[in-house]
Design brief:
The complex is a heterodimer. Chain A is α+β, with helices and mostly antiparallel strands. Helices cover about 25% and strands about 45% of the residues of chain A. Chain B is α/β, with parallel strands linked by helices. Chain B is built from 20 helices and 19 strands. Classes of the chains: A alpha+beta, B alpha/beta. Chains A and B meet through α1 and β10 of A and α9 of B. The complex binds iron/sulfur cluster (SF4).
């Protein structure tokens, strides 16, 4: 049977925002099985369903709209959204489902981070950002350094009801991007300022469609 | 701010925050205001371990079937979370409604491993509750405990109000009924405890006095009044088909240790290995009909969506027509891409074929547990595995493409000689030889694991001494040196000190409760986690409480000594255990209950296969 690739649009908020990327895949696999929908599986030992998230979601990320694509061995009915939303855990919601005939790539994205921090947070943060900072990451002994402004199109730091809200507009360059949490961590290390993240939100993602 | 919001503010800063969010598939949601009894089911280990426990799931759903009860769950927070909670003044909370534990009516602990005793106290501490039963008055939660460890409840006697002995499905409901009477009347806690002691399967330690001899052994255990039963008899469910089993089972959102549906196909074991406590306490064998198993399997898949069903029992091959059952399940499992796993299967050519067929998805690993290296010692422990059978199965397995062989043994068994230790090496060597003969090119791995014998209460070996640390070390070295000579063999052994402490706590008496409390004060928790276990802290705790741990682990008891757990009646008589122990000394085996009843005493429960014997 011909496999149909479907594109699921969904939102994620607390408490489900704390499910890891791998666990999200498994969760959806289970829900598809519960709804008795046949997915296409990979071959070989340990076959797994072909569920691909366009953007991986780090633990803790809330989002207004995310996308995964899945290959099904059957056609999905109109009631699919309703059926999913009936059994999804709190915080997850399917918004839209469409047949995927094209491919999509991420162009840029908007984030909001809410942190608990001292009054002068924004002042020091601005100062830090003026110095054209970098993000250093160590993975298996290899250090990679990314210049923040190679990816960051703009940012804004403001105070909102007791918390600090920092908005980021991040560009995707050759499939690579930076995470706002990493910027914040880099800052709090360098300035030795304690900042407690209480929410990270991907507010909007812009895609480009390719055929 | 409500507890939930406070908790969520910590979650960006802790490891695996998914442990603390609840919200799972099939989690029960109720209005706490609308129930009479709020029950906190506590598992003294992290979420991922607790959520792999079948007992938790059975009791959670069973209790929530009742409209007047809301059962919620709490697990031990990992250390990073503990610190953060303490800093923010958050007490231990439930995952369903984020209610702090002191607000519950009953707190029930599941005790499946002695090494989690310190975590039990830690959880009470994190709840800001007094540890000692006597310091918790009416208005504070009643603390109960169940699970296999309660077959010797004494080490925790001061902290737990009521121990549930045996299978809790019925007892727990009776306790709830009594609790309602207590809560909504002027009944005192003392009166409540007295009435609890009247429920069969309930042990209320405060209602018993223990006296000691000058040499430290027990002189007497006696109830404080005539109305308190002199012995507490375990409870069982007679029939698994009519007993409760949840098919809308709570299913975690994050990966847990056993991330699959566990479906119990029978309870108990008929084999009678002489070191095995489960083999005694879960007697008699009770089968669940294949019709029920099949029905449950289907419902569970519908409700949980898992990709694996594990058919669990203590000895899977003893299920009548296990092949047929597994193949029946496979029929619907296969096209839903569900894997079936069959743990504790005895391996021979038929079961190998079955394994190949049902465990398609998994990398094939063969697991053998001969437990001892020579036939003589296997006869001593009544482990009915023949060396020739291992070899013929291994040969078949290699031919069928299995590449990983795992072998489990025990060191330090009673009557063990160096020859028996070397027998383990011989088995590994011969397996490797077989592979060589077959001239295959693929790489293989033979894993040999040894644990150390821990004498357990209610077993024929309950009177035996455990090897000294020096002896354990020597035997391990001897085996290690020899196994080095065999290609493709990996050897791993269990921590000596952990086995030592396990032996001490399993056979401990009331005097250990002070030691456990001291150990917690000295910082012990998560003892079964290698990175936390620190025997020197424990040694310090023993020293400060003036207790010699060797008295509990390294000492052989005489048959007439009063044992701390003599208060508990498993149905299996002491005479039977003694007879089995004497047969072990002569290396004489005892047949399984399927061949003939050897009169262990459990038939008095009139359940399962013993009926009619
Ligand atoms: S009473 Fe007989 S058949 Fe029943 S468990 Fe004991 S030995 Fe086995």
């Amino acid at each position: 049977m011909l496999a149909n690739r479907y594109r699921f649009y969904f939102s994620r908020d607390f408490p489900s925002a704390f499910i890891s990327h791998l666990d999200m895949t498994r969760l959806f696999e289970r829900l598809f099985r519960r709804l008795d929908i046949k997915l296409k599986f990979t071959q070989g030992f340990n076959p797994h369903p072909k569920i691909v998230f366009i953007l991986p979601m780090p633990v803790g990320l809330c989002s207004e709209e995310e996308i995964f694509e899945v290959e099904c061995e059957q056609e999905l009915g109109e009631d699919i959204i309703e059926n999913f939303n009936r059994i999804l855990p709190e915080g997850l919601k399917v918004l839209k489902v469409e047949l995927a005939t094209d491919k999509i790539q991420v162009r840029d994205m908007y984030y909001q981070c809410f942190v608990e921090a001292k009054e002068e947070f924004c002042k020091y943060f601005d100062e830090f950002m003026k110095k054209s900072p970098t993000i250093k990451k160590e993975k298996e002994g290899k250090v990679t350094v990314k210049k923040i402004f190679d990816f960051l199109l703009s940012y804004e730091c403001e105070k909102v009801d007791g918390d600090i809200k920092i908005s980021f507009h991040i560009n995707v360059v050759n499939g690579s991007y930076i995470k706002p949490e990493d910027i914040l961590r880099e800052f709090s290390q360098e300035y030795n300022i304690e900042c407690r993240i209480v929410r990270v939100e991907r507010v909007k993602v812009n895609y480009k469609r390719v055929i | 701010m409500v507890v939930k919001d406070k908790v969520f503010k910590l979650l960006y800063d802790v490891e695996k925050p998914g442990r603390y969010i609840g919200n799972e598939i099939n989690m029960v949601k109720k209005d706490p205001e609308k129930v009479d009894v709020r029950f906190a089911f506590c598992f003294p280990d992290i979420y991922e371990i607790g959520m792999s426990n079948l007992g938790l799931k059975i009791l959670y759903h069973l209790l929530n079937e009742r409209e007047d009860v809301y059962c919620e769950r709490a697990f031990m927070p990992w250390v990073d979370m503990q610190q953060k909670m303490q800093k923010e003044g958050i007490k231990l909370f439930s995952l369903e409604t984020f209610t702090e534990l002191y607000q519950f009516d009953i707190i029930g602990f599941s005790l499946s491993y002695e090494m989690s005793y310190t975590n039990v106290l830690k959880m009470l501490e994190l709840s800001n509750l007094p540890l000692e039963s006597q310091k918790r008055g009416k208005g504070m939660p009643i603390v109960i405990a169940g699970g296999p460890c309660t077959y010797n409840p004494e080490p925790l006697w001061e902290f737990v109000d009521v121990f549930v002995i045996g299978e809790g499905e019925e007892v727990i409901l009776e306790i709830i009924d009594l609790y309602k009477k207590y809560k909504f009347s002027c009944m005192t806690k003392e009166e409540f405890l007295y009435e609890c002691a009247g429920i069969e399967g309930c042990y209320v330690p405060l209602l018993y006095n223990v006296e000691y001899n000058p040499n430290g052994t027990i002189k007497s255990i006696s109830p404080v009044s005539e109305n308190v039963p002199p012995k507490v008899r375990k409870r069982i469910v007679k029939d698994l088909d009519t007993s409760y089993f949840p098919t809308k089972m709570i299913t975690p959102l994050i990966e847990v240790v056993h991330d699959r549906i566990t479906l119990e196909i029978f309870r108990g074991c008929a084999r009678g290995c002489r070191f095995c406590q489960a083999g005694v306490i879960y007697r008699p064998v009770r089968f669940r009909s294949s019709k029920k198993v099949l029905q449950y399997a289907k419902e569970l898949v519908e409700n949980c969506g898992c990709n694996e069903i594990s058919l669990v029992s203590l000895s899977t091959s003893d299920y009548p027509n296990i092949d047929e059952l597994a193949r029946e399940i496979l029929k619907f499992a296969e096209n839903k891409k569900i894997n079936i796993s069959l743990p504790s299967l005895r391996l021979d050519s038929t079961s190998l074929d079955l394994l190949k067929e049902v465990e398609k998805i998994r990398k094939p690993t063969l697991t053998f547990a001969p437990e001892a290296g020579t036939q003589r010692l296997r006869d001593v422990i009544n482990k009915n595995i023949k060396e020739e059978d291992i070899y013929s199965t291994v040969r078949l397995a290699f031919e069928r493409g299995f590449q990983n062989i795992k072998l489990y043994f025990m060191l330090g068994l009673p009557l063990e000689e160096d020859e028996d230790v070397l027998g383990i090496y011989t088995i590994a060597k011969n397996i490797r030889e077989i592979y060589k003969e077959l001239k295959f090119k693929k790489r293989i791995r033979i894993t040999v694991s040894t644990s150390f014998f821990v004498p357990k209460p209610h077993t024929p070996f309950q009177w035996e001494a455990q090897d000294s640390i020096e002896n354990m070390q020597r035997k391990m070295q001897l085996l290690k040196e020899n196994l080095k000579k065999v290609k493709d063999v990996e050897y791993s052994w269990h921590d000596f000190y952990l086995s030592k402490l396990e032996a001490v706590l399993s056979r401990g008496d009331r005097r250990l409760s002070r030691v456990i409390k001291k150990a917690v004060e000295l910082g012990c928790q998560f003892d079964e986690w290698g990175e936390f276990f620190d025997f020197s802290k424990w040694e310090n705790a023993f020293k400060q409480e003036n207790v010699d741990w060797r008295f509990y682990s390294d000492r052989k008891r005489s048959f007439d000594e009063i044992l701390p757990w003599d208060i508990i009646d498993t149905g299996v008589t002491k005479e039977f255990l003694k007879k089995e122990c004497l047969l072990a000394y002569e290396a004489k085996t005892t047949s399984s209950c399927f061949e003939k009843c050897t009169g262990c005493g459990v038939a008095s429960f009139r359940g399962g296969i013993c009926v009619g014997k």
